[in-house]
Amino acid sequence: MGNSTIYSKILYTRDLEAELKAYIEKYPKGKVFLATETTMDELWLPRFNAFFEESGVKKVVIPAGEHNKKIESVGKIWEFLSHNGCDRKSLLINIGGGMLTDLAGFAATTFKRGIDFLNIPTTLLSQVDASVGGKTGINFSGLKNEVGTFKEPIAVIINTDFLKTIDRENLVSGFAEMIKHGLIHNPEHLEELKPFDFDNIDYDHLQEIIRHSVNVKEYFVANDLTENNIRKALNFGHTVGHAFESLAMEQKRPVLHGYAVAYGMIAELYLSVKMCGFPESDLNILTQWMLGIYGKFEISESDFERLYQLMTHDKKNESGRINFTLLPEIGQIAINQNCSKELIQEALEYYRNL
Ligand SMILES: NC(=O)c1ccc[n+]([C@@H]2O[C@H](COP(=O)([O-])OP(=O)(O)OC[C@H]3O[C@@H](n4cnc5c(N)ncnc54)[C@H](O)[C@@H]3O)[C@@H](O)[C@H]2O)c1
Ligand SMILES: O=C(O)C(=O)C[C@@H](O)[C@H](O)[C@H](O)COP(=O)(O)O
Ligand SMILES: [Zn+2]
User: Fold this and answer.
1) 135 within ligand 2 shell (Cβ under 6 A)
2) Burial readout 143-181 (b: 16 or more C-beta within 10 A, e: otherwise)
3) Nearest Cα residue to 290 out of 237, 250, 213
4) Transmembrane stretches, by residue range (predicted)?
5) pTM of the full structure
6) How far does the centroid of ligand 2 lie from the alpha carbon of residue 217, in Å?
7) Looking at residue 6, what is its pLDDT?
8) Mutation pick for ligand 2 pocket among 238, 246, 322 (CB with most ligand atoms within 8 Å)
């Protein structure tokens, strides 16, 4: 099992309070804390306030939005924990999307050198990806997740009812990470995603396909928690995707994480054709499918150098080389693929000309 310390339980439920009770009871009253963000606090927390108050759980609320995944917000959580008597045996419950679970997970894993935390993901992206697997972190210096830790939550409780209030753009964003899971490990999962109807969602079916996606994530995490080896598969699309996401932020035209990953996957599938013999016919089909869902992120040739510079900060890089995870075919991965600057620019040119 490599360097894994699989410890998180993934629970699927439509009765959140019942699942939570068992966890809260293991901690002394007054030692369980809640972190959430403003959207969830307004939309969903009123239904649970009485339950949390009865259980003696105090709450900190962080402003919603990716731009708040920053050190100042971590400070706010640390202050809240410190002022309310949080000790090493306390538990922090994180309710929100990937922004919140990354941020509050990071706060928990660093407070007093680490306390337990439990994730309740409320977006599709956080249910299939961000809340699972123990990557926590914040953006820093214009770079995605530049500072963070690897530590798994004690549990992840997935309730698809939360997705009923998600806007379409955020659903579509989470769907990109599911496409990624299909591409890197499970062609059947990819096929079951193709007919998904965003306008007419069957939540029971959605819960099933969320499970299939989480299974892919868990497989890689269980075998390589700290990303020394095959976990790099989960980063497919992100070398270029994070560069797009950071560039978009710099240019004040931010894009959602999943959209950036979809754009990145197209460029990295092109690299897969050139480096690993990925079938060109599959590249064309997948490119058209993803373009149809995600549209196109407009870039000009003058952005190439900045995108390349951003890729030089990717966490998979070694000895100054930009390392990609690429695909020889759907469902197969090739990690540590070092591409030349010229080839990376060719992939960006391919994307730009679509
Ligand atoms: N740790 C990991 O392994 C991992 C994996 C993938 C992505 N991420 C990170 O996750 C973040 C993106 O997460 P996200 O897409 O969930 O974004 P997010 O957390 O910003 O949530 C998206 C929007 O949905 C709102 N929202 C949340 N839950 C809602 C609900 N139930 N109903 C209505 N609105 C709701 C939020 O307020 C926000 O406006 C990025 O920072 C990305 O880097 C981390
Ligand atoms: O769990 C992983 O490993 C991933 O790479 C999942 C990604 O979808 C996620 O966006 C992750 O936060 C990216 O990590 P980073 O190490 O490239 O910052
Ligand atoms: Zn991602």
Assistant:
1) yes
2) bbbebbebbbbebbbbbbebbeebeeebbbbbbbbbbbb
3) 237
4) none
5) 0.97
6) 11
7) 46
8) 238
Confidence category of residue 28, pLDDT binned at 50, 70, 90: confident
Output the CA 22–ligand 3 centroid distance in Å: 31
- The answer to whether the Cα torsion of 196, 155, 225, 140 is positive or negative is positive
> CA-to-CA distance for 330 and 189, rounded, in angstroms?
11
What is the C-alpha separation between 258 and 198, in angstroms, rounded?
A: 15
Interface predicted TM-score (ipTM) of this complex, two decimals: 0.99
Task: Verify whether ligand 1 is closer than 6 Å to residue 264 (CB atom).
Answer: no
CA gyration radius, the chain: 20
Identity of the amino acid at 53: E
Q: Do 195 and 155 form a contact (C-beta atoms < 8 A)?
A: no
Q: pLDDT tens digits, residue range 221-258? A: 999 999 999 999 999 999 999 999 999 999 999 999 99
Q: What are 316-332's pLDDT values in tens digits?
A: 999 999 999 999 999 99
Q: Does the CB atom of residue 96 touch ligand 1 within 6 A?
A: yes
The dihedral over CA atoms of 140, 143, 148, 154, expressed in degrees to the nearest 10, equals 110
Q: Are 116 and 93 in contact (CB under 8 A)?
A: no
Rounded Cα gap, residues 217 and 233, in angstroms: 9
Distance of CA 175 to the CA centre of its chain: 11
Of ligand 1's listed atoms, the one at least distance from the Cα of 102 is 1
Q: Domains in the chain and their CATH numbers?
A: 9-162 (3.40.50.1970), 169-352 (1.20.1090.10)
Q: Residue 326: what pLDDT? A: 98
Q: Which residue has the tokens 């997948």?
A: 286
Contact call for residues 108 and 117 (beta carbons, < 8 A): yes
Question: How many alpha carbons fall within 13 Å on the CB side of residue 331?
Answer: 6
Is it the case that residue 108 has pLDDT exceeding 50? yes
233 CA from centroid of ligand 2 (Å) = 10
Q: For 209-219, what is each residue's pLDDT tens digit?
A: 999 999 999 99
